């Protein structure tokens, strides 16, 4: 039997993949690590099928290890005797809580089979939400920017966990970047905000990201260019 790590997407219930929906329908129990992922999962499964897990909001490594070990102890028997799912916003392998569970299972319950079902991540969905095209051949770096951190260097960056937008903005502007912010993109919970003014999102919110692009960057659209010579132009006018 199998434990499925299912990416629910950025937060809207209809952005769960078809594969993810099929597995949610088929498993015996669906474990959720938090309120937001639980809310999305409930769009697809009955509440009686949800198994809630308790993870402390702390950076204390001992407390976190204890919590993940307890979660693995709860999930392992279900995954040995039937099929279970652990759901997480975004993608299970991209800055996700699922990684902690998987490593704990590998250490204490190696007999549990694990399968990953990828999900739409806000790290990619931002491009549509912000109406940004990352053209063919362009580089894009992913950086964490919590607590006012303002990483610099790459021509284009997607920053996540922007919890102090004004401080991050100041550092990026000084380094020559234009910045657009997106808060709670494709999420039903809370207000979605897209802005280039950091004062509009000055309160702390974990679900805030930013797209930063060098101000003097010469961006060529990813389209074919066709030269029209003078002869063709004259024939067209005739």
TrEMBL record:
PANTHER family: COBALT-PRECORRIN-2 C(20)-METHYLTRANSFERASE
Keyword Ribosomal protein: no
Record key words, sorted: Cobalamin biosynthesis, Methyltransferase, Transferase
Superkingdom assignment: Archaea
PROSITE patterns for the chain: SUMT_1
UniProt domain Tetrapyrrole methylase: residue ranges: 2-137
Pathway(s) it belongs to: Cofactor biosynthesis; adenosylcobalamin biosynthesis
Record SUPFAM superfamilies: Tetrapyrrole methylase
Entry's Gene Ontology molecular function annotations: precorrin-2 C20-methyltransferase activity
Protein name from the UniProt record: Precorrin-2/cobalt-factor-2 C20-methyltransferase
Pfam family membership, one: TP_methylase
Any one biological process term the GO annotation gives: cobalamin biosynthetic process
Protein family per UniProt: Belongs to the precorrin methyltransferase family.
């Amino acid at each position: 039997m199998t434990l499925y790590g299912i990416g629910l997407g950025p937060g809207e219930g209809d952005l769960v993949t078809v594969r993810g929906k099929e597995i949610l329908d088929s498993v015996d129990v669906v474990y959720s690590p938090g309120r937001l992922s639980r809310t999305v999962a409930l769009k697809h499964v009955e509440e009686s099928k949800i198994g809630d897990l308790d993870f402390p909001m702390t950076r204390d490594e001992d407390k976190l290890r204890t919590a993940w070990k307890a979660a693995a102890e709860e999930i392992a028997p279900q995954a040995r005797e039937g099929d279970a799912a652990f759901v997480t916003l975004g993608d299970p392998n991209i800055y996700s809580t699922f990684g902690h569970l998987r490593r704990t299972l590998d250490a204490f319950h190696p007999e549990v089979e694990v399968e990953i079902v990828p999900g739409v991540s806000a790290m990619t969905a931002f491009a549509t939400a912000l109406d940004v095209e990352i053209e063919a051949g362009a580089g894009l770096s992913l950086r964490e920017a919590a607590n006012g951190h303002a990483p610099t260097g790459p021509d284009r960056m997607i920053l996540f966990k922007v919890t102090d937008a004004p401080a991050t903005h100041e550092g990026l502007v000084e380094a020559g970047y234009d910045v657009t912010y997106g808060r709670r993109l494709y999420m039903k919970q809370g207000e979605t905000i897209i802005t280039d003014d950091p004062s509009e999102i000055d309160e702390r919110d974990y679900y805030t990201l930013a797209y930063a692009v060098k101000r003097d960057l010469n961006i060529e659209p990813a389209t074919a260019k066709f030269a029209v010579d003078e002869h063709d132009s004259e024939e067209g006018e005739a």
